[in-house]
Design brief:
This protein is mostly helical and 326 residues long. It has helices at 2-23, 25-33, 36-60, 70-86, 91-104, 109-144, 151-188, 190-196, 199-207, 210-237, 244-260, 270-281, 286-324.
């Protein structure tokens, strides 16, 4: 399994490098440089703002947690996303680390894991709605150019169906998976089993609160759109003028591509190829589309590396404190 992930990552990296080389290293990096330091700083700051929505959506599905704890959930979401996007081969690892970040900050481990499980479902549901929006915008775009039967629509539909099917399987199997994980923890990691006991029951309790679930889905949908607007802002700083709806469509279709190729770590190569293919349909040159992809990865590193270092520092203090107290 690990070997296949390394192979997928290696192939994806070669694809990304090949695309940049094919369209011209100079042209791509000239487009990257066009954003300027102020533009890039604004892009990063806006990205930090999106975490306010994401963390708040997580807090919403954690009933009983005080309003002041919302900062903890925002931090947990930053750690979770940073681990998934910065560390290699760590999509699932980022999820585990995110729950751990909440527990270190004082959230009950059962609530941290249960709310995480529900948050993942609400985010997937919001992503499906976002992907449907992108499909509609793509059909409108291609119809205007007498290309309504473009094979790309079929690919998007396939990606959408795969995501919807995956979401259904995830929801249906969630309780069984939680019980299985708990049994394995009891057998091999007895100390960790206490943190998982009762998670399944807590997940069931949260699912009964339909109002919270609906609000979380709406907040995640807003976060998907807000993230796309961030890409539009970056393009404006680069001197590229395209409509907000066009960028929303590009980001939505890219989310579809990354979901369909979820086995590729960090979407390496998939993101770059997706931008180069989809961006052209909405008026972006391949060089600009690749530059935007590289800028998003640079933003993720700029936010993610300090976040993970801070998280590691917190973990270190937590381990040292019991030894120092005597």
């Amino acid at each position: 399994m690990k070997l296949s992930l390394f192979v997928a990552a290696g192939v994806g990296l070669l694809v990304a490098i090949g695309l940049v080389a094919y369209f011209g290293v100079g042209a791509v990096f000239s487009s990257v440089a066009a954003i300027g330091w102020f533009g890039f700083a604004s892009f990063v700051a806006y990205g930090l703002g999106v975490y306010l929505l994401l963390g708040s959506a997580w807090w919403v599905v954690a009933p009983g947690e005080l309003l002041r704890r919302i900062r903890t959930f925002i931090w947990g979401r930053m750690v979770r996303e940073s681990a998934a996007e910065v560390l290699p081969l760590s999509t699932l690892g980022g999820v585990v680390i995110g729950a751990r970040a909440l527990a270190v900050r004082g959230v009950d481990p059962v609530m941290a894991n249960a709310s995480l499980a529900v948050d993942l479902v609400t985010e997937i549901l919001a992503q499906i709605a976002f992907m449907v929006l992108g499909l509609v915008l793509l059909i409108v775009r291609l119809a205007d150019h007498a290309r309504w039967n473009d094979p790309l629509i079929l690919l998007v539909v396939v990606g959408l169906l795969l995501t919807m099917g995956g979401a259904g399987v995830f929801v249906a199997a969630q309780q069984k998976a939680l019980r299985f994980v708990h049994r394995m923890a009891e057998r091999f990691f007895p100390a960790a089993a206490d943190n998982l006991s009762g998670v399944g029951e807590k997940v069931g309790e949260i699912y009964q609160q339909s109002g919270r679930l609906a609000l979380a889905v709406a907040m995640h949908a807003a976060a998907w759109v807000a993230s796309a607007v961030g890409s539009w802002i970056a393009l404006r700083f680069m001197g590229v003028h395209v409509s907000v709806l066009a960028v929303i469509a590009i980001e939505s279709l890219l989310a579809t591509a990354r979901s369909a190729a979820f086995m590729v770590p960090n979407g390496v190569g998939v993101q770059e190829g997706g931008y180069a293919l989809i961006g052209v349909l909405f008026g972006l040159s391949p060089e600009t589309a690749l530059a935007l992809s590289l800028l998003k990865r640079a933003r993720d590193l700029t936010i993610g590396v300090p976040t993970l270092l801070l998280w590691q520092a917190q973990e270190g203090r937590r381990l040292v404190r019991p030894r120092a107290s005597p």
